[in-house]
Amino acid sequence: MLPLIVDLTGKKVVVFGGGEVGLRKARYFADEAEVAVVSREFTDGFQAERVRLVRSDAVEALEDWVDWADCVIAATDDSAVNERICAAARSRGKQYNRADGKGSFLIPSVIDRGNFIVAISTLGRSPAVSRRLKEELERMIPEEWASMVRLQEELREDAKRLLPDQPSREAFLRSVLEDGEVFEALKDDYDFAKRLALRKLEGGE
Asked: b/e per residue, 11-49, with b = 16+ CB within 10 A?
């Protein structure tokens, strides 16, 4: 399997299963895709999510909703039902994820800092390890990195105007990344950090 970051804007995702696992899966996609959740019952929390709730037996609704969706999520508490859902998705060439086994794609643990994301997966071998790695990385990656992404994006435009070639622009941007004073300033004062970086660009150092 290869990691990808995919734009699901305008895509349709169906989640079969109204339990806690189904809720997590639906919540993962709801910020970007159109999500429908099919289940006879729904755990608390679904009402607060931007998803369509379809009260129906998963097997009875299977054909229609797999046809409707671009991505199919099998998250019921019945392994045999999950297999039927995945088989229906495979037969139609749909991408599918299975909560109790391996599908055509996996859903990683994600650290989202706004300006960047970090995705972690053990390729289905150990969800517990993925969650633990996420906790460790959250502690290791300070919030200032999100501000650094913003700063680098803005400095790239300045560098294109003021530096003559790509190698010199790359060297400048790298020097900002490695500048402890700039990084420290990002904790409290973004504008000051940018002034420090521009001083390097304009030959002040």
From this structure: bbbbbbbbbebbbebbbbbbeebbbbbbbeebeeebeeb
Helix spans in 69-189 (H):
79-91, 127-140, 144-162, 166-177, 180-185
Residue 119: strand pairing partners: 110
- Distance of CA 105 to CAs 1, 74, 193, Å? 8, 12, 40
Helices 79-91, 58-68: inter-axial angle, 10-degree rounding: 30
Q: What's the pTM?
A: 0.86
Q: How many CB atoms lie within 10 A of CB 125?
A: 10
Give φ, ψ of 9 to 5 degrees: -60, 125
**Collapsing DSSP states into helix, strand and coil, what is residue 71?**
strand
Q: If you compute the radius of gyration of the chain from its CA atoms, what whole number of angstroms results?
A: 22
> Residue 183 has which token pair?
């990084």
What confidence tens digit (pLDDT) does each residue in 23-76 have?
Answer: 999 999 999 999 999 999 999 999 889 999 999 999 999 999 999 999 999 999
